[in-house]
Amino acid sequence: DDLGEEAVLGHLASVLPCLDRTIIREVLKAHNGNADLAVAELLAETELLSPQQHNPREEALREMEAAVPDCEVAHLREVLDEHHGDANTALSKVLANGYPKKNKRPRLTVGASEASSSTSSSSTSSKVGDRANSQALLPCPDAEYWFDMRKRQSERKLPASYQEEALILLLAEFVELDRKSIVLTLKKNCNFYAPAWKFLYDAVGMLLSGKPLPPPLTKLRRLRPRKLMPEKLVKDLKATRLRKEVEFVRSWKDNVQEEQERKELRKAYLKVCEDEGLLLECECCFTGAIAEEVIQCSAGHLFCAACTKQCVEHKLGAGDEVHHIMCPSTSLCQEQLPPGELRRILPHNLWASLQTHLQRSSVQAVLSKHGGDVESNVEQCPFCDFVMVMDTSKEENKVFVCYAEDCGKESCRLCREESHIPLRCEEVEKKSQVNHRLSVEEHMSRALIRHCPACKKKGVASAILKDDGCNKMTCPHRKCRAFFCYQCNEEISKSTGYAHFCQHPLSPGQSCTKCKKCPLWSSKTFVVDEERRVANEGLEYHKRYLQDHEGNKLTNDLAVLEGARETLGRGKPLTAKVRGRG
Questions:
Q1: DSSP-assigned beta bridge partners for residue 302
Q2: Residue 303 is inside which H or E element, if any?
Q3: Cα separation of 412 and 381, whole Å?
Q4: What residues have CB less than 8 Å from 134, skipping those under 6 apart?
Q5: Within a 13 Å sphere around the CA of 98, how many CA atoms are in the beta-carbon half?
Q6: DSSP sequence for 42-87
Q7: More confident site: 532 or 69
Q8: Residue 422: how many CB atoms within 10 A of its CB?
Q9: Cα(402)–Cα(383) distance, rounded to whole angstroms?
C-alpha cells in the first residue's frame, strides 16, 4: 500500500542521505518495492560512479595494502593512525610484529542460466548482480576516462532518460550553436555527455579566439533563448550517471579556469620582476627568469627551469648509469645539482623518471661492489629494481618482500620466481617451463584446425574444427560459404557436391576397398592418423622450441609430450599425405 511504500522510501532516504528522494523512488518502483534490491543498485551507483577524492591517509593505506595484501584492512588502518599517517613506519611495525590474516570468503554470483530458470524476483536479483558487475569494470572516473570515447565503449547501454537530459542540458549550455549541430555532435559521441560537451566547449573557445567552427557546428545569428538555466536543469536531473558526469565536467572546467588564472598571474608577476630588475639570468640560455623558477648548484651557478629540464632529459636519454646530475655550467664546475632543488623545479613525471634511474644505478653499484659472503645478503627484486640488505640467510627466510610502490611482489630467494611457499622450488613449474608447455599445447591445438581453401586463396583466414558430422564442410564465412572436404582439405564445387565422396554402401567407420575417394564419414584409420599427426606436430615444434631457447634449461618431460610419444609409437610411420593435412 501507499503508506508502506512511503515508509520504505523514508527508510532508504535515511540510509542514503546523499541521494535525492525522487531517484530512490524510481529505483524502488523498478524493483517492485523490494528494498534490498533497491539498496544494492543505489550503493553500486554511488560507490562506483563517484569521482575519487584525494586523501593522503587513504593513499597511504592503499600502499600498505599493496605491500601486505593478506592483512586485515582494519589492522592496517589502526597501525597507520597510531603513526599519524606515516606509511613506512606503520608498515615496518606491521611486518615486525605480525598481523591478522584476511578470511577469504567466496563471492556470491548469479549466473545467467540460474536467472532464466528462476522466478521473477530471482530474475530481478540477477539483473542487479549483472549491472553491478558491469559497473565494476569501469575505470577510475578521471578526465582521461570521461572524455575518451574508446575507453567508454564498455559501459552498459544508456537509458533514454540519460540521452534526453544530456541533449536538453547541452542545448541550455551552448546557446550560441545551432540545435541540429548539437544533436549531431551528441550522436557522434554515442550520446555520452562528457565527450560531446568537451567538443562543444573547445569549439566555443575557437569561436571566441576568431577561428572557424569545426564541422558539423554552425553559429546562430542570435543566441537561442533558454527555457531553464543550466543550474536548474542540473539540480533536477534524474539520471544518476549523468549527474555524476556533470559534476566531473564542472570540476574539470573550474580546474581549467584556475590554471588559466594562475598563468595570467604568473605573466603579471614576471612583468613586475622584469620592471624592477629582479629577474635572474640563466647561465645556459642567458634569459631572465623569476627566482621561483631558478635552480643553483652549491657553487652558485644559476639555471632556469627549461634548461634544467633539457639537461636532465639529455642525461637520461644517453643510456648511461645516472648517479647524480652535475652542474651544466660551461666553466667545468664539478658540483652537483641538489636533489631537493631538482624535485622543486622539474615536472613530476621527469622527477619520477630521474628517481628510477638513480635507484637503478645505485642497485648496480651495490651489486658490483659487494662480493663473497656480503653479496648473499644483498637481494634485488627479480621483478623490479628494488634492492635491500637481508639480515637472515636464504635458508632461514626464503621469501623476499619487495617494498617498491609499483611492485610489492613476494618472490623466492632461492629460485627467484614468485613465492610458492609451502611448495619446494623443484615442485613448482618455472615461468620458462610454463611458456614452453603452453606453446607446445597451443601449437598442437592449431594443428587440429582446418582452413577453408577458397578463403585461403583470397588471403582470408577461416578456421574450422569438426567435432562431429560428415566430411562435407561449409565455410563459416558469410561471404564465402564454399564447400570443401575435411579429409583431403580440397574445395568441392557446387556441381560436384556429394559426388566427391565414396558412393559405395559402407558401415560407419569402415574404409572402402573399391575406390580411392574420400569417405563421407571419417573412418577409424583416419581418426588414428589425425591423432598421430597432431602428436608429431607437437614433437617437431618442441625440438624447434628447444633450439630457440637453449639457455632456459628446459626439459623433455612434459606430460603432453609423453602422451604424444605414446600416440606416435603406435602404428606405421606417417606418410607425406598424412603429414600435409591441416
A1: 296
A2: strand 302-304
A3: 10
A4: 154, 155, 156
A5: 2
A6: HHHHHHHHSPPPP-HHHHHHHHHHHHSTTB-HHHHHHHHHHTTT-H
A7: 532
A8: 5
A9: 9
Nearest alpha-carbon partner for 357 in 320, 309, 403 = 320
The grid cell for 379 is: 637481494
Which parts of 397-449 are beta strand (E)? 399-401, 410-412
The answer to whether the predicted template modeling score (pTM) of the entire model surpasses 0.70 is no
The alpha carbon dihedral of 444, 446, 450, 453 has a sign of negative
Residue 65: its pLDDT value, please? 77
- What is the SS3 string spanning 539-558? HHHHHHHHHHCHHHCCCCCC
Query: For residues 29 and 57, is the Cβ–Cβ distance under 8 A?
Result: no
238 neighbors 22 (Cβ within 8 angstroms): yes
State whether residue 198 is helix, strand or coil.
helix
Higher pLDDT, 2 or 431: 431
The string of pLDDT tens digits covering residues 105-149 is 333 333 333 333 333 333 333 333 333 333 333 333 466 777 887
| Amino acid type, 354 | L
Query: With bands split at pLDDT 50, 70 and 90, how would you rate the model's confidence at 361?
Result: confident
| 37/35 Cα distance (integer angstroms) | 6
Contacts of 376 (CB under 8 A, 6+ apart): 393, 394
